[in-house]
Amino acid sequence: MALHTRRLGPDDPESVHVASRRLGTEAFGAWPSDRTPPPLPVGDAWPAGVAMWATFDDELPDPADPDGPLMVARVRTHDYTSWFGGASVPTTGYAGVAVTAEHRGGGLLNELFAASLVESAEAGAALSTLYPTAPGIYRRFGYEVVAAYDTVEVPTTALAGVRPSPTVRTRRATPADVPAVLATYDTWASAQNGPLTRRGPLFADAEKLLDEVFAVTLAEEPDTDGTARVVGFASWDRGSGYDLDSAIEVHDLVALTGDAARALWRVLGSFSSVAGRIRLHTSDPDVTRLVLPSLAWERAAHHPYMLRILDLPAAMAPRALPVPGTVELEVADDPVGLLDGAWRLTALDGVAAAATRTGAASGDLPRFTVAGVSLLYAGAQGTANLRMAGHLSGPTTYDALLDAWFGGRQTHVRDYF
Ligand SMILES: CC(C)(COP(=O)(O)OP(=O)(O)OC[C@H]1O[C@@H](n2cnc3c(N)ncnc32)[C@H](O)[C@@H]1OP(=O)(O)O)[C@@H](O)C(=O)NCCC(=O)NCCS
Questions:
Q1: DSSP helix/strand/coil, 294
Q2: Does the pLDDT value for residue 224 go beyond 90?
């Protein structure tokens, strides 16, 4: 094998993009018959906010182009920003990871990830996230599971007892309501850890929300000046049929108040005579479990979401930490060498957070694995659990401060990629 890994671009010959698409189809199956594949990313058709890398074996010919080397692995990345600690953090989302069937198990991902993670960090990504088909594939690159995209099912009959709110009204959204819907999502998402901000090139069509779903239902309550204020929304598809097997598919149910949540679930429950289930995409446990505690709630699908920090200063800079202080720590054994060394994290008066590298690891400071510092940053685990699992060792001096800095928000994701 004579391997080389490189970034693909819009000027690559069409045969390279055909090979990448073939590898994707081989790994994930043919494009569904009811959806049209996007154009090959050649020239102007290159999608904004997307990067691609591929590993080639120069000793093997591409069957479709004998003059070109065989593409043996590929990955696509998406430019996102996501909410952590109330800050919008540059995030590169990895997707479409594939190795040719005959070359699997040969360690080709090491080369592909080493190159693409370093270049993604250089391009400004603070974090990398992905939905693994199996988490074990990515742990060796420093990723760990911080959240999950779940599909849960609630029988519509269980919603019959949801009482109406005296103040919240529901109505169907119109195009004029889209900015209020997006602002409601912002309010909710910025209070969680993990959701994408839904800004940037990959969400350029966010304003066309109403074209993409059957309906968006709003929950509104009166504002002090007599106007109505949007306090929640549900975007949903009706699905087919009108019997117990029929399900209403809810893509987003965002509520800023308990009354808004009850009002939206009541609308969904009104389908009980024609649909057996509500299928909701969320991160379980959804807060609805607290608002409507007696609802039966079954998980139908579970997609873990993994994260690793790529650039600690870039990950810290946007965050405002709630307690002033300074923490000295070190990160060891980063498989791609991005985080190794000693670091000083500072928070000045609850405003600016910063991370600066202070030198090589000495062994005297609290010592994190890459997954450990990533889990802490995401608010997915506290220091006690990281110590228990072997992701943090050494002095406990800063444990309470680190827990105060990074804890307190639930991890959530709403966009699968
Ligand atoms: C997943 C895939 C990219 C891995 O390719 P690969 O060539 O086996 O990867 P590598 O040889 O570089 O790494 C294999 C490592 O991942 C682990 N791994 C691979 N598949 C795994 C699985 N299904 N579950 C757990 N671990 C897995 C192996 O244990 C191995 O670790 P080790 O080196 O410690 O033994 C390849 O199997 C593939 O293309 N699968 C179909 C598409 C897919 O699932 N893509 C992932 C999308 S998130």
A1: coil
A2: no
Protein residue with its CA nearest to atom 10 in ligand 1: 107
Q: How far apart are CA 171 and CA 74, in angstroms?
A: 46
- Which residues span the domain enclosing 191? 150-303
Q: To test the ligand 1 pocket, which listed residue (94, 113, 137, 336) has its Cβ within 8 A of the most ligand atoms? A: 137
User: Measured at the alpha carbon of residue 120, what is the angle toward residues 80 and 16, in degrees to the nearest 5?
Assistant: 95
Helix, strand, coil share (%) of the chain residues, nearest 5 = 30, 35, 35
Identify the CA nearest to 8 among candidates 28, 23, 30.
23
Structure confidence by residue, pLDDT tens digits, 155-201? 999 998 898 889 999 999 999 999 999 999 999 999 999 999 999 99
Residue 106 Cα to ligand 1 midpoint, Å, equals 9
Ligand 1 and 73: CB distance under 6 A: no
CATH number, residue 330: 3.30.1050.10
Whether ligand 1 lies within 6 angstroms of the CB of 52 is answered as no
Closest atom, ligand 1, to C-alpha of 134:
24
Distance CA 149, CA 147 (A): 7
Q: Are residues 165 and 299 in the same domain?
A: yes
CA 105 to ligand 1 centroid distance, Å: 7
pLDDT cut 70: percent of the chain above it: 100
The DSSP line for 199-239 is -SGGGTTGGGHHHHSSEEEEEEEE-TTSSEEEEEEEEEE--
Both 283 and 244 in one domain: the answer is yes
Rounded distance from Cα 93 to ligand 1 centre (Å): 18
Our count of domains for the chain comes to 3
Q: What is the pLDDT of residue 350?
A: 62
Kindly report the CATH number assigned to the domain that includes residue 126.
3.40.630.30
- Is 101 a pocket residue for ligand 1 (Cβ < 6 Å)? no
- Count other Cβ atoms within 10 Å, centred on residue 241: 12
